[in-house]
Amino acid sequence: MLFQSFTFPNGTTAKNRFFKSAMEEQLAIDNQPTQTLVNLYRTWAMGGVGVLVTGNVMVSPNGKGSVGDVVVSDDRSLPMLKAWADAGKTANTLMIMQINHAGKQSPKAVNREPVAPSAVPLVGMDGFINPPRALQVVEIEQIIVEFITTAKIAEQAGFSGVQIHAAHGYLISQFLSPHHNQRNDDWGGSLANRMNFLLKIYQGIRATVRPDFLVGVKLNSADFQKGGFDENDSLAVVAKLSELGIDFIEISGGNYESPAMLAEKSSTRQREAFFLDYAEKARKISQVPLIITGGFRSETAMNDALKSGNLDLIGIARPLALIPDLPNQIQNGTYQTLTTNRIKTGLAPLDKKVGAVLEMDWYMAQMRLIGEGKSPNPKLSAWKVLFNTIVANGKAGLSTGRS
């Protein structure tokens, strides 16, 4: 099934079921796209993926989550955006721009006064992220306009669609969470009010772009945080988005304070993929195209997941940073199932403090190599990545971003 085409509700067709999920690249210069990004996405497109999703593209300079984020708030970079889109559409690939606003998940180095639905600080982030300021209603409305503007620019640049990032604890995810959103106006309180921000963004984009321009969402199955956005909330959002005609939903989970996928159940290890149980529940209430990302490594597990009927495309991220032509290798029979290990320095106290962040930076280093026309280096030293990152960007370079 992996090489069967798939047609989305708006009539757009992906050539196969491989969906390259977003990974933060941090390859922007002055928050603008670069030739390195263009090269990276051309390589992935030539590697056989059916759908490519970019890493975080922020809708506002005040919404950055990392030093190297691309920001698209106007058309100043339209020529390079067009080059990026064209590269990603090589070999009949669909190229999706992920659009996002970090909200309070914005380090001091890029934002001295982050914003959020409510002035609820992130636990354990005091030295890295300042406490947020609660957004005023007029600011909420302005950010909705910014999302719509970025989507329109993506369409003008030739992207196949956008993915609204409503997961991983960023601003839309913060609005969805009763823990992070303690407002008592039309934007908080009940789940209907908490999802209002996401729905206004989606409906605004859908009303602005062409019918054949894909509009999807990345959504948490849950925040995995006490008092946060839970599975029942998530399924209700899926049902509502489906009712409104969303083109696809990618399922993920967790946030800065409680990252998902650190503890695996035995059933998860056997089936490789995270969130399959959730997909089964979502399929019972909606026929919206679903993508599950996280854990897939073997061709067998990918095909088994598709055969279940509970998802429509296979989300793959980090394996493509090491094997950019993974789909082609599977198709021609040369793929050997990838085994990935945790990236560690070997110093337990240091690994405990920066391990997850270091791992993301290690994969970003692999993406940079690909973008520079080099081969990925599975033996790349964690210490070298740590040193280079801090030299280049200071402590802020230790990205905590998740696309």
From TrEMBL:
<dbReference type="GO" id="GO:0016491">
    <property type="term" value="F:oxidoreductase activity"/>
</dbReference>
<keyword id="KW-0560">Oxidoreductase</keyword>
<protein>
    <submittedName>
        <fullName>NADH oxidase</fullName>
        <ecNumber>1.-.-.-</ecNumber>
    </submittedName>
</protein>
<keyword id="KW-0285">Flavoprotein</keyword>
<dbReference type="Pfam" id="PF00724">
    <property type="entry name" value="Oxidored_FMN"/>
</dbReference>
<feature type="domain" description="NADH:flavin oxidoreductase/NADH oxidase N-terminal">
    <location>
        <begin position="2"/>
        <end position="335"/>
    </location>
</feature>
<dbReference type="InterPro" id="IPR051799">
    <property type="entry name" value="NADH_flavin_oxidoreductase"/>
</dbReference>
<dbReference type="GO" id="GO:0010181">
    <property type="term" value="F:FMN binding"/>
</dbReference>
<dbReference type="InterPro" id="IPR013785">
    <property type="entry name" value="Aldolase_TIM"/>
</dbReference>
<dbReference type="InterPro" id="IPR001155">
    <property type="entry name" value="OxRdtase_FMN_N"/>
</dbReference>
